[in-house]
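User: structure tokens for this one?
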Amino acid sequence: MKTRTRNGALALLAAATLAGCGGGGKSQLEYRVTVTNLTAGQPMSPLLVAATTGGAVWQEGQPASVALEKLAEGGDMSDLAREIAANGGVGGAAGAAPIGPGASETHTFSFRRARGVTLTVASMLVNTNDGFAGITALPISDLAVGESMSRAVVAWDAGTEANSEAAGTIPGPADGGEGFNAARSDAPDAVRIHAGVVSHDDGLASSVLGVQQRFDNPVMRLVVERLR
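Assistant:
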């Protein structure tokens, strides 16, 4: 399995702000995050990794922020990174390219010691209308140096766009259609566990997706390691 490593080389100003809380000596904590795309046909948009004291970035049953909507519909993490940075962000990293099915990606980042730091990881499933893989408010402060933890990460439906699977509505390679659209067309307008795609192979004649784009939860594996 191919693994790519990026050590704080952030392409986005917002993500650089997340990682810019420098420091030194014993007050500096360092973590390594590795994610693996477990799907067979869902590339994932460039990954957002954020350590924050600001709590959950989304909540099941509550409307998604516009920043989360932009990530879930178009794979654009920039506004979400800025939002986290402005609300307790202490460190983080950003991917530079999509993560293909079966591929892994590793990021190392550091930040000054703080109480109650949690981790948020998010990436769009690009062959969906508004699906994203993610985990938020995962506590990492209690990990000792040398310890690691693993989590199975589910797919979420942002609840901002109907899961029509129609031509022109999906930005990924299965369609090449529209990404973010400010109009919200789903009901309820709330984040929830994604039910998966139907596809034209399983009875949705208007779908541009095939059986290869279908997925079951979990869709991502996350490993977090404390290095320092």
